[in-house]
Design brief:
elongated, mainly alpha
Length: 170
Amino acid sequence: MTTHLTHQQLCDLLIAGPYEISPELQPLRDHLRSCTECSKELDSLRQPLQNFRAATTAWASHNSANRSLTLPLRSHSFGAAGWMLAAAALLLALLVPVALHERHSSASAARNTAVTPSNSSVHSSSTIGDEALLEAIDQTVSSSVPTPMEPLADPTAGRSTQTDSTPRKN
């Protein structure tokens, strides 16, 4: 009496390719040639997998044929709303850097005119530039601290600098 293949052995044969050569598979294939019951069991396991493969392949080829006809039509019809949105995005991308540059330039010009000394005829041009730079640095350093950041300006504010020398009782 011969023993039949286990479920695991049948699964190993299903997973292995038809031309795969390995020492574990050869005795299983030899057994299949001699045992009709195991051959029928393997065929009953193979049939649903082959049906699934055929259905999947047919579905994929059907969808690829339909997709190739409809995809180019969708890509060419951008529409008026799409063109308007693209134009607005392009305009925004061009105007934001220009506006930031203008804002920066006007702030620099205002700072330079406020810092430039009134008696420019006395000083040379390099001295004026140095003084303007020092004045700008002085204004930046001496500017007031915003209210929310006041605790950060003086971290010891409100604390007593004297030490308490009274003895404590425990």
